[in-house]
Amino acid sequence: MKTFLFVLLLAVMPAWAGGSSGPKLDIGKGGQCVEAPEFMRRNHMEILQHQRDETLRKGMRGSKYSLVGCIDCHASSKNNSVLGSNENFCQGCHAYAGVRMDCFECHSSKRKTVAEAGK
Amino acid sequence: MNAENPDRRKFLGKTSAVVAGLAIAPGVFLYTTAHGRAPGEAASGKVRWGMLVDTTRCSSDCKECVVACNKENGLSGGTKATDPQWIRKVELTDKKNGRKLSLPVMCQHCEHPPCVDVCPTNASFRRADGIVLVDRHRCIGCRYCMMACPYKARSFVHETLTDQNPDVPRGKGTVEACTLCVHRLDRGELPACVEACAKTGRRAILFGDLNDPESEISKRIRTVASVQLRADLMLNTGVRYEGM
Amino acid sequence: MTTYDKVETRNFYLLVALSGLVAGMGLIAAYLMEEHGHVITGMNNQIVWGMPHVFAIFMIVAASGVLNVASVGSVFGKAAYKARAPLSSLLSIALLSGGLTVLMLDLGRADRLMVAMTNYNLTSVFAWNVVLYSGLFSLAAIYIWTMMEKRMNVWSKPAGFAVFAWRFILTTGTGLIFAFLVARQAYGSALLPPMFIVMSFAWGLAVFHVVQSSMYAWNGKTIDPEIHKRMRNLLGIFVIAVLYFVVAYHLTNLYFAKQTAFERFILVEGGVFAVLFWVGYVLLGSLLPLLLIFLPGLEKVRYTVMASLLVILGSIAFLYVFIIGGQAYPLSIFPGYETTSSFGDGQIASYAPSLPEFLLGLGGIGVAFLMTTICVRLLSMLPHDIPDRRKRDAL
Known about the structure:
The complex is a heterotrimer of chains A (119), B (244) and C (395).
Chain A: H1 2-16, H2 37-56, H3 67-74, H4 89-97, H5 112-117
Chain B: H1 4-24, E1 49-54, H2 64-73, E2 87-94, E3 100-106, H3 114-118, E4 124-126, E5 132-134, H4 144-148, E6 155-156, E7 175-176, H5 182-185, H6 192-200, E8 205-209, H7 216-223, E9 226-227, E10 239-242
Parallel strand pairs in B: 1-10
Antiparallel strand pairs in B: 1-8, 2-3, 4-5, 6-7, 9-10
Helix pairs in contact in B: 2-6
Chain C: H1 9-36, H2 51-74, H3 79-82, H4 85-106, H5 113-118, H6 125-148, H7 156-179, H8 192-218, H9 225-255, H10 260-269, H11 272-294, H12 301-328, E1 337-341, H13 355-379, H14 389-394
Helix pairs in contact in C: 1-13, 2-4, 2-7, 2-8, 2-12, 2-13, 4-6, 4-13, 6-7, 7-8, 8-9, 8-12, 9-11, 9-12, 10-11, 11-12
């Protein structure tokens, strides 16, 4: 009986991996990202962590990895933000993967021109 | 990637307007701020940003610098004990003779900042060009820097913030202070308080490169008496006051 | 060899439940502070360290001082104290845990503890403290092991020395937190590190007295009157020493013209601060305990416990005046000028401790209690003194 259940478990496991497509995202402006999507999926956290020190501590501006740049492209056209629902760019994947994001405690999630207009 | 071009165009537009303005209007406020740095260029120790506040031009009923700072950096402008204030107007009365004075106080951007000495994680740091900043990625909110600052320049964010200015990230649980509008400086603009003061016509705040002997601020410091606050602590502040 | 006894069962469960509840409420308070921000506390931009810090610093200083009992045994070779060394080390670990719990939970970004553990600013006392406090945990634990594991007994003396040296550095570090604040009139004094060391002796011993006497009472045992008398007198000496440092601190301050206004605030005009200082610390926290300790005819253990509790009360009062009074008094940015501003310049800052702060601070004490109760039950730490003096001194 135990063996049967165990084999059943194993057989069902691939289904746990979920759909191959992942979450449905509104990727804002879309088009060409600064790096390939597969690269970004794996490395955007390291890129951001490195870039934040370059920008803040060394004062190097205008990098292609600027967070404001990311948000400018990826903010949804519906609410001009990368947060707000599980369709929004950052929140969607992070909610799906269950990984907490610290960025938006401090950083605005809204596209810069809209945020400035709102001031 | 695309965000750079509109910014460059804006910057070029602004610079041309300013140069034109400088050429025409007499007595206009001259500044030799460095043009914004090239993308990817790090801040350099060759420059040291500083300010000179002429207290004789400052009036008790003007707080345009405070208003401008609040607007630029997304501060609420409230004055509850838990509200952040990056710059404040201080009213002084000389105890000996009753002389009254008004001046703005903000982070003094010391050369030997006590806040940098005491910060356990190096979140409080001094950028190469003299601006003292809080790296809010590293700040753990221990508030030791607030205890250490002789000027009470720092504020703690006591509540959740929303709708921050994208150029000025700020968040609950971290410490913050005047950044000399580093996001504007890096684009070649002046700090908001300096610009606002100039707009009122008082022009009480002079901003510039202390390391450049030909800058307006360096020339003025050489000719007119000015003091640093708490000079006895020998912190060599970047902000100086004239007329005290 | 010494043998150890277990704590009585009923008291055990009661104490675990009580301290668990207090610790739990502290955790809830910490959660609320994390969720809503420090705006729900009484702390603000003028008083940045409040009630939680008063409790935390008491516990951390007492944690260092309670090890004195062990040091007198291992380092100075007094056998009666040696029997108490395991309990003293355990109390140290428990108090340190409680104090650090409060400090870490009060951080604005408590979730960034990893950042604090991996980014060190070598000029910052706080960064040194991360190493010093963790080190004390390890050393105290190793010390207990050398005393309780027969094969390791030969190492207990070097371990005792290591703990002794380490905690001196640690308490100096605690004093330096304040000593390095050059700009504040209450701090920025080289007197503070030695003052904190002596305070740790007094507060640590007071805590030890309370715990030891409770354990003896609940086990229906009595402590040897000789040992009790010696330890009681030691507490008296330490209380006098602390008083000496406090007097030295204030007298020196009074001598400096630029400090007299601050001193007048703390000692005379400061309202709650002056009351807490004179009544809380001097009268109830120092003079009354000294009477209870040194007046003839008061040899019973209950008077020692009373004196110890008063010393602890006095220490909280002292820390409140020191930490919060030191922040309430305005910074002297413009000497010679009267100052006003929207940011509290020139004004005495007001502070009203809030419920979350009290709960958090008490929660730390709850954690310390909980740890002590459970460990004492598991590890049998009641000191068992050999009644024959000759046998004991021969050890």
